[in-house]
Amino acid sequence: MIRIALFFTLLFSSLFTQAIDLNLITASFKAGNVSPLAAFMDQEVDIAVPASAKKCNPGEAVGLLNSFFSSNRTTQFTVVHNADKKDSGFLVGKLLTAGGEFRVNITYRAGSDKDMIQSIRIE
After folding, report:
1. Is the pLDDT reported for residue 15 higher than 50?
2. In CA terms, which of 3, 45, 48, 81 is 20 to 30 Å from 62?
3. Domains of the chain
């Protein structure tokens, strides 16, 4: 009986270890400051905001996103949907700002020790 309980505990814990930290993403977007996400960005990240779209390193990505937030003060951010697969996942969110409503799409891949954000699109 103990072996069965241990088996299911290990099985379920391994399923949930690859999920990206939704609380960190939600807090960053609510605050309008994505700097804490830089540590979770891949070496090259696809960034798209209404005025620009490009591949860049995490530092440039944070700068571009924080520039967006400086002209679009966040009032609310909610996660609408997210899904994790074995090696990747995505998140869809709704961002309300003083400048309007935006849809946020984030894709990530499972890394060896943490998930790495590959793209952030704000449309």
Report:
1. no
2. 81
3. 19-122 (3.10.450.50)
